[in-house]
Amino acid sequence: MIYGYIRVSSDKQTVENQRFEINNFCSRESMTIDGWIEETISGTKNYNKRQLGKLLKRIQKDDLIICAELSRLGRNLFMIMEILNICMTKECRVWTIKDNYRLGEDIQSKVLAFAFGLSAEIERNLISQRTKEALARRKAEGTDLGRKKGVRNKVLNKICMSRHIFIIKQLAEGMSIPEIAKKIKVARGTLYRYLAYTGIRIPTKISSERWNRGIY
């Protein structure tokens, strides 16, 4: 598919100039636009809040997006780089007319891909380093890190307690422990421990010896 993308910033501007440029280019290259995306919105708006965002979600390998110039995609370098990175990931091409920019399989695109990858790796390393520094500072200040012991079990036991009558009823009707656990959305081991803690009768298919040893 070949898409023509047109963006103007205000109602006072017209899309016809960009459409004329794209049509002339396609005529010279013996190409036909399969779909047009036109919008009147500031380029500073995140692409996800524009029609461009919807286009980026549906593009596929070997699709081509043609626009008048790169500034039509976004008004800052980082946004444009992010948009081009999405296109590269999906193996979609982007061509501009005024800039004569081509995103595809050429060396320029490969250099750009390397730059994207390097930037992402640097950012991940910086985030990791900041996280480690923050944790080290909190530890030095005496702050307990991680989940408090027993917090998760208390939450899960509250779920079992809130469904106590339901559990007893289903046991009486012969429903298995795994089935009951699935219905109340807890792990079956949690339900087994709850039954042991509350003294509810253990299903006969599980021997008391295995129950006491924690083998279910």
Topology:
Elements lengths: L1 E7 L7 H13 L6 E6 L10 H8 L5 E4 L9 H13 L3 E4 L5 E2 L3 H34 L10 H12 L1 H9 L4 H8 L3 H11 L9 H5 L4
Parallel strand pairs: 1-2, 1-3, 3-4
Antiparallel strand pairs: 4-5
Spatially, the strands of the biggest sheet line up as 2-1-3-4-5
Structural class: alpha/beta
Number of helices in the DSSP assignment: 9
H and E order: EHEHEHEEHHHHHH
Main sheet makeup:
5 strands, mixed
Name the average pLDDT: 79
Strand content: 5-15%
Radius of gyration: 30 Å
Shape: elongated
| Straight-line distance between termini | 57 Å
Number of strands: 5
User: Percentage of helical residues?
Assistant: 40-55%
Which regions are unreliable across 5 or more consecutive residues at pLDDT < 50? none
Name a few traits of the molecule.
52% helix, alpha/beta, 216 residues, elongated, 5 strands, 5-stranded mixed beta sheet, 9 helices, single chain
Structure commentary:
The protein has 216 residues and is an alpha/beta fold. The protein has helices at residues 16-28, 51-58, 77-89, 107-140, 151-162, 164-172, 177-184, 188-198, 208-212, and strands at 2-8, 35-40, 64-67, 93-96, 102-103. Helix 7 crosses helix 8 (188-198). The longest helix has 34 residues, at 107-140. 13% of the residues are buried. The model has no long low-confidence stretch (mean pLDDT 79).
Short précis:
The chain is an alpha/beta fold. It has helices spanning 16-28, 51-58, 77-89, 107-140, 151-162, 164-172, 177-184, 188-198, 208-212; strands at 2-8, 35-40, 64-67, 93-96, 102-103.
